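Pilot study result, target chain (118 residues):
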Amino acid sequence: MTLNHVHLGSKNVKHSTEFYNSVFGFQKKFDHGEGIFIENSEGFLIAIDPVSEIPVLPAWFHLGFCLRSEAEALSMYEKCSGLGVKFTRELMHVEDEYVSFFILDPDGYKLEVSWHKD
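Predicted structure:
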Protein backbone atom coordinates (compact mmCIF):
# COMPACT_ATOMS: atom_id res chain seq x y z
CA MET A 1 0.00 0.00 0.00
CA THR A 2 1.21 3.50 -0.80
CA LEU A 3 0.12 6.73 0.83
CA ASN A 4 -1.09 8.73 -2.17
CA HIS A 5 -2.02 12.22 -1.01
CA VAL A 6 -2.90 14.64 1.75
CA HIS A 7 -5.76 17.13 1.44
CA LEU A 8 -5.33 20.62 2.92
CA GLY A 9 -7.55 23.65 3.17
CA SER A 10 -6.08 27.03 2.33
CA LYS A 11 -7.20 30.63 2.63
CA ASN A 12 -5.21 31.38 -0.53
CA VAL A 13 -4.76 28.38 -2.85
CA LYS A 14 -2.43 30.27 -5.21
CA HIS A 15 -0.13 31.36 -2.37
CA SER A 16 -0.02 27.84 -0.91
CA THR A 17 0.67 26.32 -4.32
CA GLU A 18 3.55 28.76 -4.84
CA PHE A 19 4.95 27.89 -1.40
CA TYR A 20 4.97 24.13 -2.01
CA ASN A 21 6.48 24.72 -5.44
CA SER A 22 9.26 27.05 -4.30
CA VAL A 23 10.16 25.11 -1.15
CA PHE A 24 9.56 21.47 -2.15
CA GLY A 25 9.28 21.52 -5.96
CA PHE A 26 5.62 20.44 -6.20
CA GLN A 27 4.09 21.07 -9.64
CA LYS A 28 0.49 21.42 -10.72
CA LYS A 29 -1.02 18.04 -11.59
CA PHE A 30 -4.63 19.11 -12.27
CA ASP A 31 -7.35 21.49 -11.18
CA HIS A 32 -9.94 20.21 -8.71
CA GLY A 33 -12.96 22.52 -8.76
CA GLU A 34 -11.73 25.70 -7.08
CA GLY A 35 -8.75 23.78 -5.73
CA ILE A 36 -5.73 22.07 -7.18
CA PHE A 37 -3.70 18.90 -6.93
CA ILE A 38 0.07 19.37 -6.92
CA GLU A 39 2.63 16.58 -7.20
CA ASN A 40 6.27 16.07 -6.29
CA SER A 41 8.87 14.16 -8.31
CA GLU A 42 8.02 10.93 -6.47
CA GLY A 43 4.33 11.10 -7.34
CA PHE A 44 3.03 12.21 -3.93
CA LEU A 45 0.05 14.57 -4.20
CA ILE A 46 -1.14 17.47 -2.11
CA ALA A 47 -4.73 18.53 -2.74
CA ILE A 48 -5.38 22.15 -1.77
CA ASP A 49 -8.92 23.50 -1.58
CA PRO A 50 -10.10 26.97 -0.61
CA VAL A 51 -11.55 27.37 2.88
CA SER A 52 -12.62 30.40 4.86
CA GLU A 53 -11.10 29.12 8.12
CA ILE A 54 -8.13 26.85 8.80
CA PRO A 55 -9.01 24.11 11.30
CA VAL A 56 -7.34 24.15 14.69
CA LEU A 57 -5.13 21.07 14.83
CA PRO A 58 -3.40 19.53 17.85
CA ALA A 59 0.04 21.02 18.57
CA TRP A 60 1.68 17.68 17.74
CA PHE A 61 0.12 17.47 14.25
CA HIS A 62 2.52 17.95 11.34
CA LEU A 63 3.42 16.66 7.90
CA GLY A 64 6.89 15.18 7.51
CA PHE A 65 9.15 15.57 4.50
CA CYS A 66 12.09 13.18 4.70
CA LEU A 67 15.00 13.99 2.40
CA ARG A 68 17.50 11.57 0.85
CA SER A 69 20.74 12.94 2.27
CA GLU A 70 22.23 15.04 5.01
CA ALA A 71 23.48 17.55 2.44
CA GLU A 72 20.02 17.85 0.87
CA ALA A 73 18.42 18.50 4.28
CA LEU A 74 21.02 21.15 5.18
CA SER A 75 20.55 22.76 1.77
CA MET A 76 16.78 22.82 2.33
CA TYR A 77 17.33 24.57 5.66
CA GLU A 78 19.39 27.26 3.92
CA LYS A 79 16.79 27.55 1.17
CA CYS A 80 13.97 28.03 3.69
CA SER A 81 16.04 30.62 5.56
CA GLY A 82 16.65 32.49 2.32
CA LEU A 83 12.97 32.43 1.38
CA GLY A 84 11.97 33.89 4.75
CA VAL A 85 9.97 30.81 5.73
CA LYS A 86 8.81 30.85 9.36
CA PHE A 87 10.56 28.27 11.55
CA THR A 88 8.82 26.73 14.56
CA ARG A 89 11.88 24.69 15.53
CA GLU A 90 15.31 25.66 14.36
CA LEU A 91 17.85 23.30 12.90
CA MET A 92 18.82 20.26 14.94
CA HIS A 93 21.84 18.53 13.41
CA VAL A 94 24.14 15.75 14.51
CA GLU A 95 26.65 15.12 11.75
CA ASP A 96 26.24 11.77 10.00
CA GLU A 97 23.18 10.98 12.18
CA TYR A 98 20.25 13.34 11.50
CA VAL A 99 19.00 16.75 10.42
CA SER A 100 15.62 18.11 11.49
CA PHE A 101 13.73 21.40 11.56
CA PHE A 102 10.10 22.54 11.52
CA ILE A 103 8.54 25.27 9.36
CA LEU A 104 5.06 26.66 8.74
CA ASP A 105 3.32 26.84 5.39
CA PRO A 106 1.30 29.99 4.54
CA ASP A 107 -1.79 28.65 6.34
CA GLY A 108 0.10 27.66 9.48
CA TYR A 109 0.38 23.91 8.85
CA LYS A 110 3.47 22.63 10.64
CA LEU A 111 5.95 20.80 8.40
CA GLU A 112 8.92 18.76 9.55
CA VAL A 113 11.89 18.54 7.20
CA SER A 114 14.41 15.87 8.10
CA TRP A 115 17.02 13.34 7.14
CA HIS A 116 17.95 10.34 9.29
CA LYS A 117 20.87 8.01 8.82
CA ASP A 118 18.69 4.92 9.25
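One observation from the pilot: The longest helix spans residues 70-83. A full batch analysis is planned for the follow-on phase.
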